[in-house]
């Protein structure tokens, strides 16, 4: 969230594209993927005049490559629980490749309180709550080559707490 706030100060266009940029993924694949998917995201936005276009690993020909079974189950489980409890109308709530209308992102940032993995989910849930439209495009996610995921027991517990908080407050 703090990176979003900082980035918005310098964004001059009408749209902001958000993506992981911690360089933990293979840089060549990361930026090549961005330049390949970017036109598809903008096309989808124009097609439906969406406020948000989210890349999804779980719809169409999207997918995940390089994850072990445990990581896939955690991601699928988190998305399934969220679907059941919050009915967000989006298939991939934990992904972080998204295009936002700048003014929509600013409004969402005012409303969101979550930290960590719950933050991405809250952005979509709050967007729906505020009546913003969300489109999706399939993406392929390739796991990091260097470094380790920050996903551990504490993050899973934090996610579950955040999910229950959103369930109680939305």
From TrEMBL:
EC number: 2.4.1.83
Regions crossing the membrane: none
InterPro entries assigned to the protein according to its UniProt record, in alphabetical order: DPM1-like, Glyco_trans_2-like, Nucleotide-diphossugar_trans
Pathway noted in the entry: Protein modification; protein glycosylation
Taxonomic superkingdom: Eukaryota
Alphabetized GO MF terms: dolichyl-phosphate beta-D-mannosyltransferase activity
Domain Glycosyltransferase 2-like as annotated: residue spans: 2-108
Enzyme class, spelled out: transferase
Reaction(s) catalysed (UniProt annotation): a di-trans,poly-cis-dolichyl phosphate + GDP-alpha-D-mannose = a di-trans,poly-cis-dolichyl beta-D-mannosyl phosphate + GDP
GO biological process, one term: GPI anchor biosynthetic process
Keywords per UniProt: Endoplasmic reticulum, Glycosyltransferase, Transferase
Localization in the cell: Endoplasmic reticulum
GO CC annotations on file: endoplasmic reticulum membrane
Keyword Transferase: yes
A Pfam match: Glycos_transf_2
Main localisation: endoplasmic reticulum
Family, similarity comment: Belongs to the glycosyltransferase 2 family.
Function: Transfers mannose from GDP-mannose to dolichol monophosphate to form dolichol phosphate mannose (Dol-P-Man) which is the mannosyl donor in pathways leading to N-glycosylation, glycosyl phosphatidylinositol membrane anchoring, and O-mannosylation of proteins; catalytic subunit of the dolichol-phosphate mannose (DPM) synthase complex.
Assembly notes: Component of the dolichol-phosphate mannose (DPM) synthase complex.
Protein name: Dolichol-phosphate mannosyltransferase subunit 1
Gene: Dpm1
